[in-house]
Amino acid sequence: MARLRRIVMPGQAHVIIHRGHNGQVVFVDDRDRASYLSSLRDAAAEAGVAIHAYGLFGREVRLLATPRDAAGLARMMQSVGRRFVRAFNQRHGRTGTPWEGRFRSTAIEAAPHFLACLRFVEGPPESSAGAASSGGEVEPSSAARHLAGRDDSLVQAHPAYWALGNTPFEREAAYRQFASRPVSAPQLAAILHAALHGWALGSDAFAARAAHHAQRRARPSAPGRPRKRDE
Q: Is 24 helix (H, G, I), strand (E, B) or coil?
């Protein structure tokens, strides 16, 4: 079956998931995380992509980002891959790439889904994706930026986050309250399914816009045979 064209909508937020090849570890320690974040910062600036959140897990990366144009996400991920893999292999004496060949992504409708996607990308505070790493060198997610206002030059706030309050204190307090509850199982499943399979995440109208933009369907087909029209 031919691979569907990736849905990328300029000016819309996207969830990105990039996993290690065959589940291999892609971040051995804080030096690897720092190397990835440095590579991501440069690649995002060059590709015209705003990074709203990130989570660096042992075996995968999750990003929440808005591209300026339709090619931005691919340019960014290719660039960060080249930069990081070179440094990773030199440091650990490896060859080849630790990544799956293709990153996964979904365009999201911000109003109903942005905060849940932000929570998904950064991970729960009690997990390794939201707490300080053992070496204390690098935060493996941008959670500290949104929960406590810690400076993070990589992160650009999305309008949906700004809408949480009129001051940084109000925004952080509102997001802390939201983040104190886990993403519901159905919403988490919807985010993962959309990102891993390349479907748009949003209303029927948003999905129709995504389909028109990408010139392909933006949601999976309904199960079963198509109904025959009455003659």
A: coil
Q: What is the CATH number of the domain that holds 95?
A: 3.30.70.1290
On whether the CB atoms of residues 85 and 97 are closer than 8 A, the answer is yes
Contact by Cβ (8 Å): 187, 181: no
What is the rounded (10 degree) CA torsion for 187, 188, 190, 195? 140
**Residue 142: is its pLDDT beyond 70?**
yes
DSSP bridge pairs for 62:
17, 55
H-helix or E-strand spanning residue 55: strand 49-56
Inside any domain, residue 220: no
Higher-pLDDT residue of 39 and 125 is 39
Q: Domain residues for 44?
A: 14-214
pLDDT for 135: 42
* 76-80 own/partner pairs: CB under 8 Å, 24+ apart: 76/40, 76/43, 76/44, 76/46, 76/47, 76/49, 77/16, 77/18, 77/43, 77/103, 79/39, 79/42, 79/43, 79/46, 79/47, 80/36, 80/39, 80/40, 80/43, 80/44
Position 130 scores a pLDDT of: 36
What's the confidence (pLDDT) of residue 200?
97
